[in-house]
Specification:
four-stranded antiparallel β-sheet; single chain; alpha+beta; globular; N-terminal domain of TfIIb; Naphthalene 1,2-dioxygenase Alpha Subunit, Chain A, domain 1
């Protein structure tokens, strides 16, 4: 059971007074159905987030990461990854400034010798003061860690919140035994929410009209969508599964725009391959699914039989880690090797860096506007943006805690 959240107000940190909320109450009152989302600049607590690829953490290596404003340390010991807060409880210095690990299972602060267990964060020794009574009674914050599909996931949550299964924080099919994923990560200078909304933005397909991925895959690509019904998106809110939204499957395909007109004149055209309906169905993107805490699955993308899974991991209030993986069902080692080769030599340069880099450009261009909280209420959305609003409202309903400034400090 979740504990009751802290009362809204402010806290003293040294000489600074820091409000619990980043957003003024007057603004939150204007969006009652998605106020938690508006407030979640640093993301939602009590969720699993990927922070590194498994290949990035070698045995015995100590590396740093930052998630939701919290700076952490990770180390692989006997194959298992552990994570603790990168801050000594004594005087607050970063352990990473000068890493000292005298034993495999501990890390020692370079300043006064406070030593902690990697598996629990417990203070086990103080080299400069070995008889101090607090030894064994204090601890650094530690984080639950899981590895799956080549990614290292860290659970950022409240002390009395029991971590739920990873399956509730990833799209369906990601954890399937035969699903093999390869990917890369990019630091993006925008808030994580702009990443999510870019991923489900039905009209942003216009942005990609000249992407090199289109001729590479010989796929049709419209300029946008028209006449979307209000119930175009289906909500998934089962208590034991991911909380997300996805387009409904309609019997008849909804019309798409392939000609762009300005003052009645055709000024731009989409790409429409002359293929049979059966061939076109195989080449087009058949759907997408986005779920908390901020992860998207796109089916049959960047090509038939592939799945793109991408995460928008909060780093700070204006930066997120963009983790993109291309997955494929593989039955044999030969298929696994072929998929890895194709990812490295085709999909990474053409799709991740030739298609998704356009999304990165768009998010970073959005950030100056949405950096001002008032502007979340000044946007002018249209009918085809309904999915964005439904996503915000779903996040509000299923928020299990908003990261506060007091959690970051």
């Amino acid at each position: 059971m979740l504990r009751a959240g802290p009362k809204r107000g402010s806290q003293q940190h040294g000489n600074r007074i820091v409000a619990d909320s980043f957003v003024e109450e007057r603004l939150l009152k204007k969006v009652p159905r998605w106020r938690n989302y508006l407030e979640a600049k640093f993301g939602f607590r009590n969720h699993w987030y990927p922070v590194k690829f498994s290949r990035e953490i070698a045995e015995g290596e100590v590396i740093t990461a930052k998630i939701m404003g919290e700076e952490i340390l990770l180390k692989r010991i006997d194959g298992k990854v552990f994570a603790i807060r990168d801050r000594c409880i004594h005087r607050g210095v970063k352990l990473s400034e000068k890493v000292e690990c005298y034993t495999r299972g501990t890390i020692t602060c370079w300043y006064h010798g406070f030593t902690y267990k990697w598996d629990s964060g417990k203070l086990c020794d103080i080299i400069a003061s070995p008889n101090t009574p607090i030894i064994g009674k204090k601890a650094l914050k530690s984080y639950p860690v899981e590895e799956a599909k080549g990614l290292v996931f860290v659970f950022v949550g409240d002390p009395d919140y029991e971590p739920h299964p990873l399956s509730r924080d990833v799209p369906p099919t990601f954890l399937d035994d035969d699903m093999v994923a390869h990917g890369a990560s990019y630091m993006v200078k925008s808030n994580w929410r702009l990443g999510c909304e870019n991923g489900i933005d039905d009209l942003h397909i216009y942005l990609h009209r000249q992407s090199p991925l289109v001729p590479n895959t010989q796929r049709s690509l419209p300029l946008g969508h028209t006449d979307r019904p209000d119930d175009f998106y289906e909500l998934f809110e089962a208590s034991d599964g991911p909380k997300g939204i996805a387009p409904r499957k309609f019997k008849d395909a909804k019309p798409m725009a392939y000609e762009g007109r300005v003052e009645g004149k055709v000024v731009v055209t989409g790409t429409k391959m002359h293929t049979t309906p059966e061939e076109a169905a195989k080449k087009r993107t058949t759907g997408h699914y986005v779920c908390l805490p901020g992860v998207l699955r796109v089916d049959n993308f960047p090509f038939t039989g592939l799945f793109q899974f991408e995460w928008y991991v909060p780093v700070s209030d204006d930066t997120h880690l963009y983790i993109i993986t291309i997955a494929k069902r593989c039955a044999t080692e030969e298929e696994r090797a072929e998929h890895e080769h194709e990812f490295l030599h085709r999909w990474k340069p053409v799709s991740l860096e030739g298609f998704n880099n356009e999304d990165v450009f768009a998010r970073e261009a959005l950030q100056p506007f949405y950096n001002h909280d008032d502007n979340w209420l000044e946007e002018t959305l249209v009918r085809e943006d309904n999915g964005i609003i439904q996503w915000r409202e779903l996040c509000h309903r299923h928020s299990s805690g908003v990261q506060k400034p007091s959690d970051v400090l």
